[in-house]
Design a protein that fits this description.
The protein folds into 2 domains: 109 residues, 3-Layer(aba) Sandwich (Rossmann fold); 182 residues, Vaccinia Virus protein VP39 (Rossmann fold). It has 12 helices and 12 strands. The chain starts with a helix and ends with a strand. The mean pLDDT is 90. The protein binds S-adenosylmethionine (SAM). S-adenosylmethionine binds next to loops.
């Protein structure tokens, strides 16, 4: 609860000062939490959501956030994690934004690691994607579902470390190029107007960064390379799989690869199904479900994860 209380105190401080125009940037799970805290106070406030990725029509872009009409708005920097925090501060500094306009909600890495594993139940409720992972894990153990775990689309391992935490005795296959998107996948999305991604997206990572975050490293297997080619030699069945590769082709191939290998009672979570920035995720899930004659549940997380079971 420590992080929540700190955030709440900061929000209350701004409200007491009479601030009532806020832009929450970026608008992820922490942003959603801050919005909830402000709304719960019942104070008349004008709240805008801003993000580098225009994830839906309620979210304004970074450039819009900087426009003169929003000069009077305080920017609530809503980020949980030191790496992204640094990047966003550089982005704001580059635009020479008045520092007094920024209210920074980040907490440092040490505190972060501590809160993640000590406050698991709390975080499960604040971040529905993590809450869903926890529930899936508990169900899998309760029903003795056999099989390993995998995440395809790992980036810096910030979701994978939670999978590794909840499944301490299962192998975790960490599947990524670890060099960002592949041109073949990007071209398909762009020519089908599913997403428009900068080609450099998700390059800033490495296997070392990822492994460094895993609480049960001995269970982790790094699979570097272009999916699905990278998994041709794997011989495994699965209990839990996270697909978070953003683009249509790898997600569709991910479903075609993992679903037949999913054990009865297992789960596949597909991230970004309600993220307008990456429309390929939902389309891949829909197309796959049509092929198989199955359906899915959408979670209440910001980007809407789709969940399949068998
Ligand atoms: C959104 S990031 C993953 C974020 C991560 N799951 C998290 O929650 O922190 C998407 C990742 O998918 C990877 N990716 C996309 N297409 C891929 C492909 N065809 N093969 C391997 N990795 C791919 C990218 O390299 C990138 O690291």
């Amino acid at each position: 609860m420590e992080f929540y209380n700190t955030v709440r105190k900061k929000v209350m401080y701004e409200l007491k000062k009479g601030e009532n125009n806020f832009i929450i940037f970026p608008f992820g799970e922490v942003g959603k939490m801050i919005e909830g805290i402000i709304l719960q106070t019942g104070k008349q406030c004008h709240i805008l959501r801003a993000d580098n990725n225009k994830t839906d029509s309620t979210v304004i872009s970074f450039d819009e956030m900087l426009s003169s009409k929003y000069q009077a708005y305080k920017i609530l920097l809503a980020i949980f994690g030191e790496e992204t925090h640094k990047e966003l501060l550089i982005q704001l500094n580059n635009e020479k934004i008045d520092k007094n306009r920024i209210v920074d909600f980040c907490i440092c890495q040490d505190d972060k690691e501590k809160t993640i594993y000590e406050d698991v139940d709390f975080w499960g409720r604040i971040d529905p994607r993590r809450g869903m992972l926890e529930r899936c894990a508990r169900e899998i153990y309760y029903r003795n579902v056999p099989g390993q775990c995998a995440e395809a689309g790992v980036f810096r391992g910030d979701f994978a470390k939670h999978i590794n935490y909840w499944f301490p005795d299962r192998e975790l296959y960490l599947i990524d190029t670890f060099e960002g998107f592949d041109d073949r996948d990007v071209e398909y999305d762009e020519s089908n107007t599913l997403s428009k991604s900068p080609e450099t997206a998700w390059e800033d990572t490495s296997e070392l960064i990822v492994l460094g975050k895993m609480p049960n490293k001995q269970m982790c297997k790094l699979i570097k390379g272009w999916f699905p080619d990278s998994v041709r030699d794997l011989e495994c069945t699965y209990a839990f799989v996270s697909l978070d590769m953003d683009l249509y082709q790898p997600i569709l191939e991910g479903l075609r690869y993992f679903y037949p290998r999913l054990n009865h009672g297992g789960y596949i979570m597909v991230h970004d199904c309600c993220n307008d920035f990456y429309k390929g995720a939902r389309k891949a899930l829909d197309d796959f479900c049509k092929e198989e004659g199955i359906s899915y549940v959408i979670c209440s997380d910001v980007y809407g994860s789709g969940v399949l079971t068998k």
